[in-house]
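Morning run. Coffee first, then this:
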Amino acid sequence: MKKTTILIVCTLLLLILCACDNNNATINSPTESNSTSDEVINYSDDKIIGTWICDDISKDFYFVFDENGDAYAKWGTSTIYGYFDYYDEENIYDIDVPNFLYNEYTAQFDGDKMTLTSDESSYEFEKATMPEITIKAPDNLSVDDKIIGDWQSADSYECYRFNQDGTAVITDLYSYATVDCKFSCDKGVVTFYYMSSETKDGSREAKYSFDEHGKLIMDDIKYENVTG
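And here it is:
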């Protein structure tokens, strides 16, 4: 699989996920569940529960399945959220982690190893420990008070949350994909700092200003403050 920068990957994925117009959506916390099921099922005894890596996909990606039926892929400070369902009588998992796993898979477990096989592919996973990720950013972050809040635009699939402590979250309208960042503002330019793996850091700059109505203009796209 070809690798590119984390923000480009997420932007392409957001275009797929947010093909339907939903301008009234609110930005969720990246820690909130994105499970599509209204029924809460406890999978705590399931062998799939835990953190896994799959060299067939990438050594930088961690796949997590939790006891609530939520699943997600994480690399660096980016996360793609999904879900899984388990058909006990058939040992088949319906897994949907967009752009990575999206099929029904027969699972086989052997100690700390797991094989997921579908009609189209087979992946070998191994149990892993999620690393602690620290964003590498300058110590003297400068925060513009006017930029603080949640921002959305009818012309962009990316949404932004800027916090007073210099942290930020880039997300799509449904919070299916998030990038945790730090940011700094200087002379009309906001710089985002993020991690694209455990050890690889990255940054992205965007010109910004505000119009007479207080709307944020970033890279020629106008955003509205939707902070609740």
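The two ends are 39 Å apart (CA to CA). Good start to the day.
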